[in-house]
Amino acid sequence: MLNCITGFWDRAREDISCVFERDPAARNWWEVITAYPGVHAIWLHRMSHCLWRHKFFWLARFLSHIARWLTGIEIHPGASIGRRFFIDHGMGVVIGETAVIGDDCTLYHGVTLGGTSWQKGKRHPTLGNSVVVGAGAKILGPIKVGHHARIGSNSVVLKDVPEGATVVGIPGHVVNADRKASAAQRQAIASRIGFDAYGMAPEMPDPVAYAINHMLDHIQALDKQIEELRHAMEKAGISLPERPLPPLESCALRDSDEKSGK
Predict the structure, then answer these.
(1) Rg (CA), the chain
(2) Alpha carbons 255 and 251: distance in angstroms, whole number
(3) Is the CA virtual torsion 52, 76, 129, 22 positive or negative?
(4) Distance (Å, rounded) from C-alpha 54 to C-alpha 50?
(5) DSSP for residue 174
């Protein structure tokens, strides 16, 4: 217990310093200490986690309940969290009992590190070092997210994420992975593909839209081949019956035509 108290002050200084590194809105240390719920949540968690490790289970849970009431951030006292952990804004963040978070990680509001099983044992995610999880993202199950990974806003991640990867979509798809890239290269790659902690940037390659667009291109190429085949058969004296095809039109265009009386 004494070790927990002694180490608390060293880590508290690191927590304040990392806020200035990751939040340009932070102006001075007094503001961070008094007006940052993410900082309050991690400080209270360290206290409750210390109680949990010393088997004061009810007291640890009660303290975490008070922290949730004060900050809007729910961290189970059993969760293990590394150094320089930062929760920006924080409302709605949920971190489960067996979750493990490495050093220098950042979570935005609405993030869930949850479980997918009612069985006891390891059932929550493990995050490596320097992981950034965008607003509203859900990482579920006993999966591993590699060092320096980026989880896009509102993504739902159900599988392991390789080191240095960026994941977007529902379910989450890896849109980039580079295990050997340096931290600076990873940041440049994430910026280039449009990683945004708060939302899906317009230039971000949505995996579902990407697949649909390629499928439509494939259908168009097939239509062209079929048309050429018809012409070749007609020249050879073989006639084929005409079969009407349903028109391809968007819902918006159809609604517009109906309103105009066409």
Answers:
(1) 26
(2) 6
(3) negative
(4) 6
(5) E
Do the bridges between strand 166-168 and strand 173-176 make them parallel or antiparallel, or are there none, so unpaired?
antiparallel
- Round to whole Å and give the CA distance between 170 and 155: 5
Measured distance CA(241)–CA(255) in Å, rounded: 32
pTM of the model: 0.66
Q: How far is CA 138 from the centre of its chain?
A: 6
Contact 100, 80 (CB under 8 A): yes
Supply 178's token pair.
């580079």
Q: Tell me the mean pLDDT in the region 40-57.
A: 92
Rounded to an integer, the average pLDDT of 113-131 is: 89
Amino acid letter, 29: W
Q: Which of the four pLDDT bands, split at 50, 70 and 90, describes residue 253?
A: very low
Contact indicator for 45, 75 with CB cutoff of 8 Å:
yes
Q: Parse the chain into domains and list their residue ranges.
A: 2-204, 209-260
Residue 246: what residue type? Answer: P
What CATH number should be reported for the domain whose range is 2-204? 2.160.10.10
Confidence band of 144 (pLDDT split at 50, 70, 90) = very high
